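Subject: for your reference before the review

Hello V.,

The reviewers asked for a structural picture of the protein, and I figured it would be easier to keep everything in one thread rather than splitting it across files. Below is the amino acid sequence we used in the manuscript, unchanged from the supplementary table.
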Amino acid sequence: MATGVSGATRLLGGPSGLLVALVVIWASSWPIIRVAVAHVPPVWFGVMRYAIGCLIVFPAVVIKDGWQWPPREDWPLIFVSGALQMGAYAAFMAYALVTLQPGRASVIAYSTPLWVVPLAALWLGERSSFRATLGVMLGLAGLLAIAAPSVTLSDTSALGAYASLFGASLSWALTIVFIRGHTFRASPFQLAPWQMLTAVLLLLPVALVLEGPPPALSGTAIFALAFIGPVSTAFAYWAAVEAGRHFRAGTMAMSLLATPCLGILISALALGEKIDASLMAGLLLVVLGIAMTLATTQSTRATDRNA
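And here is what came back from the structure prediction:
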């Protein structure tokens, strides 16, 4: 666990304050993006979001570490993370929020750890315990409880939105599993702007083909991008890396489970999203399922280290 604390971290009350700020920022992002995609096509919103992130994070990395090309060994990670964790996740999420309420959507998008367990077993040969399997099943039951009451087979827009959220979650899970098998040469912070640039370069032609030329930005869109680009993307990425220096991975993962919970509350207060029994039951099942899989993963790794 790292002991050095940066000046920015001290301003936020130390590592714990930084982690709280990260949860609040990411939870607030969902209703803000929901409002934004009513004014900006979803893929273009992803392009603009990461373009702003690049313009902020590139100079920050140069000031801190100087200009340097990423090591050759890290380029596969840059492409996978930029394409899936950033590009695909942002586009799928924004597309889903055109149709769905942000609180409900955030729970499904944050189900990523449920997909990591079977993917890691297939890809990396990681052992999956009965408890982990049960956790995945509980989480999937929760996702079904959230989605089933609000969608029918004839409702193509809702079906497409939920499929996009599952795609977003799966994209992030694939990145996590890839990262587990990758040996970093540069730091995650040094690689971040290159990942964001990759997301921009991949999303830009998709936006041009599917959504036409760049849209004119309304005041609402500018306000949303002023938060999502600098705060929810650039600052939050640094905050996640910095917090990860001070907390164990399991602590980070469990703390970030608060994000969809808080996102539901913020969405209800800001946009009047209805909090019904199916949403709450689904949220509890998803949180319980993720908690079980995370606890099992930590236990398995500790056993492997001691073997």
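For the response letter, the relevant points are probably these. The chain is about 80% helix and 0% strand. Residues 299-307 have pLDDT under 50 and may be disordered.

Happy to draft the paragraph if you're swamped.

O.
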